[in-house]
Amino acid sequence: MNAIIEKLRSRAQKDPKIIVFPEADDDRIVEAVHYIGKEKIARPLLLTHDNLDPEKQEEFANIFFERKEVRGVTFEEAREVMEDPLNYAVMMVKQGYADGFVAGAKSTTSTVIRAALNCLSIDRKTAIVSSCFIMSVPDCAYGEGGVFVYADCGVIPYPTSEQLANIAISSARFAKEVLEINPRVGMLSFSTKGSAEGRWVDKIKEAVKIAKSKTNEFAIDGELQPDAAIVPEVAKIKVNKSNVAGHANVLIFPNLDAGNICYKLTQRLAKARAVGPIVLGTVQPCSDLSRGCSVDDIIDCAAVTVIRAQNRERGK
User: Which of the 8 DSSP states describes residue 121?
Assistant: First the structure.
């Protein structure tokens, strides 16, 4: 395991937070929760249909009803929503009864994201909910010693230039605050600095321009093909001048097709550890899981969620 990934668990253990797991009917979750509690990576709470607090269900239903009444949701419907451990878990986080939640071993990403959007607050600075993966590639000299942040791999199918810019900024901020690395953001394309033309290339160029106009905190460059983004020798041939090319450790994909396909190929062909999807853009921290996740993936997602809760507590 990469040293950066190992460090995540260690940092979480220094100040474990309450993390809710609403999928008690999955054996991987049960095994992970047992390990997380034993190693004090978090203070895990495993939810089942039988251990939901009726008083909190009523409280949460009232809050949900008030938020959704304008959309025609009745109070009885709000009550039914809060009978689902996933929605109950998200509301626990929203109301401060827990510090974060981890779900997705049994639920699809769309279901988890919908629950988060229905209940959690959206970070106004980010202005968009997206996701990222921490990818740890063994025996790899690229990125940050084999560690990359991939985004967006789970939420926005066809992002606009504005959305891509916000995804880049939120992913870079995540890399800096959670992985404690200096983010170098490569906006990926099938073109490198004008080697091809077309509206898809123009969209990436515009995204880079928007991202740079929004912040100068991070090194951001594009449009870059993946080899020009991460391989120094290729970057020297394809790019005249760049503070990112050849050394990118945060990779922003042009759409969900590219991001999701690439992370799964990296995970399986390069035997990489894929931690995530980590949900970005909500005030309260949460993590989705791939339904193909391992026990270690769940443990690492919990550690990341704890670290983000620690950072939130410190006002980061």
Answer: P
Contact between residue 138 and residue 283 where contact means Cβ atoms under 8 Å apart: no
One-letter amino acid for residue 299 of the chain:
I
CA separation for the pair 144, 250 (Å, rounded): 9
Domains identified in the chain and CATH numbers = 1-121+291-316 (3.40.50.10950), 123-281 (3.40.50.10750)
Confidence grade of residue 234 (pLDDT, cut at 50, 70, 90)? very high
- Long-range pairs for 267-272 at CB < 8 Å and ≥24 separation? 267/135, 270/137, 270/138, 270/140, 271/138, 272/135, 272/136, 272/137, 272/138
CB-based contact 20:285 (threshold 8 Å): no
d(CA 102, CA 88) in angstroms, rounded, equals: 13
Q: What is the pTM of this model?
A: 0.89
- Cα four-point dihedral sign 39, 51, 286, 265: positive
Question: Could you tell me the maximum CA-CA distance found in the chain, to the nearest angstrom?
Answer: 64
**Which pLDDT band holds residue 69 (cuts at 50, 70, 90)?**
low
Q: Name 241's Cβ contacts closer than 8 Å, sequence gap at least 6.
A: none
What does 87-113 look like in DSSP terms, one character per residue? HHHHHHHHTTSSSEEE--SSS-HHHHH
